[in-house]
Every structure is written in structure tokens, then in C-alpha cells.
Amino acid sequence: MIRSELIQKIADENPHLFQRDVERIVNAIFEEIIEALSRGDRVELRGFGAFSVKKRDARTGRNPRTGESVEVEEKHVPFFKTGKLLRDRLNGNA
Amino acid sequence: MSKTLTRMDLSEAVFREVGLSRNESAQLVESVLNHMSDALVRGETVKISSFGTFSVRDKAARVGRNPKTGEEVPILPRRVLTFRPSHLMKDRVAAGNKTEA
């Protein structure tokens, strides 16, 4: 399923809404999650999962092609942990 | 200090974006999460451009060990969900959390 298919499903269920508003709604949800993570906040969606930010320490990396060492700076990366309900549903337990 | 957002904050974002009631905004957030979950349970990959990709992977059975007791426990084959953030999300999260040196 891709973004446009998700938008279509929501639009089909809500015939009273304009397609362009459904697009704005779906986009606003994903945008809000990215903004929260960019501020260092977590987003916890019970049953679905939680988005958080993890810190990756600075390290000395290596260019795999040349073998040359490179300093990799500390950085923060997005992380998702699946919620219990969804994890159980994936395994047919709910 | 970092805080935790919930469904309520996402509904609030929808409410601000389009002039719907708070109640309807909350229902829309729920529908989005439900459609994504249903697709994943069917084994589909959910690919949201400029956000990221959720995919389901099959894990084989293996023998695990209780780290406390050292006891061997069988781990059954199972399906797990992985999320791969888009480049855009990674870049924005990295930029937003950059600590000044």
C-alpha cells in the first residue's frame, strides 16, 4: 500500500470530504510525526507502535572501498517499535 | 525536555489543518492507523513517500536462551514489522537534534 492508496481508502469511507482535504489530513498526520521527532519528542500510538529518536555515538568508520578511516559524527536517527496489539495481530493472535 | 505525543496530538494537527470537529479528526487518525495495520496484517508493505516504509518480515525458528538462567527456550517462527525511515525523515531528524559542538 502506498500513500495515494491510503488516501483513496479514507476518501472512499468519507464521501462528505473533498479528496484534497483527505490528502491534507493524511499528510498532516505524517508531518506531525516527523516534526515531533525533529524536536526530539516521541510519538506513542498505543496498539500500533511508537516512534522515537535514538542517538548514535560518534565513531571512526571506514570507507569500504578504499579502507580509509573517516570520522563519523554523533547523530540522531528515527526508530520505530511495533506495538503489542499489532505484533500479536501479525502473528494471528488477535 | 522531550515529551511524548499521542493520538490526541495527531488529531489536534488534523483539526488545525482542516476545519473538522475534534471528534471527527480523532476518528480519521484512527482510520489511517487501522488501514495501515490491516495492510500489514495482510502481509503488504506500506510505503509512505517522504515518510518511510513499513514491511513485514518472516523470522525463522531458533533456539533462544534466557539470559538470566541460561536455560534454552525455543523461539517459534514469527512475523515481525520493520520500519525504514525515508531519507527525508532521517535528514530532518538528524538536523533537528544536532547538538552544537
Automatic annotation (TrEMBL), chain A:
Gene Ontology annotations of biological process type: DNA recombination; regulation of DNA-templated transcription; regulation of translation
InterPro entries: Hist_DNA-bd, Histone-like_DNA-bd_CS, IHF-like_DNA-bd_dom_sf, IHF_beta
Pfam families (alphabetical): Bac_DNA_binding
GO cellular component assignments: chromosome; cytosol
Keyword Transcription regulation tagged: yes
CDD domains the record matches: IHF_B (cd13836)
SMART domains: BHL
Keyword line: DNA recombination, DNA-binding, Transcription, Transcription regulation, Translation regulation
Matching PROSITE patterns: HISTONE_LIKE
Alphabetized GO MF terms: DNA binding; structural constituent of chromatin
Keyword Transcription regulation assigned: yes
Classification via PANTHER family: DNA-BINDING PROTEIN HU, INTEGRATION HOST FACTOR SUBUNIT BETA
Function: This protein is one of the two subunits of integration host factor, a specific DNA-binding protein that functions in genetic recombination as well as in transcriptional and translational control.
Family the UniProt entry places it in: Belongs to the bacterial histone-like protein family.
Quaternary structure annotation from Swiss-Prot or TrEMBL: Heterodimer of an alpha and a beta chain.
Name of the molecule in the record: Integration host factor subunit beta
Species in which this protein is naturally found: Psychromarinibacter sediminicola
UniProtKB/TrEMBL annotation, chain B:
Gene3D superfamilies, sorted: IHF-like DNA-binding proteins
Keyword set, alphabetical order: DNA recombination, DNA-binding, Transcription, Transcription regulation, Translation regulation
Highest taxon above the source species: Bacteria
A single BP term in Gene Ontology: DNA recombination
GO molecular function annotation: DNA binding; structural constituent of chromatin
Gene Ontology, cellular component aspect: cytosol
Keyword Mitochondrion annotated: no
Keyword DNA-binding among UniProt keywords: yes
Transmembrane segments: none
Entry-linked HAMAP family: IHF_alpha
Similarity annotation: Belongs to the bacterial histone-like protein family.
Quaternary structure note: Heterodimer of an alpha and a beta chain.
Function: This protein is one of the two subunits of integration host factor, a specific DNA-binding protein that functions in genetic recombination as well as in transcriptional and translational control.
PANTHER family tied to this protein: DNA-BINDING PROTEIN HU, INTEGRATION HOST FACTOR SUBUNIT ALPHA
Protein name (Swiss-Prot/TrEMBL): Integration host factor subunit alpha
Native species: Psychromarinibacter sediminicola
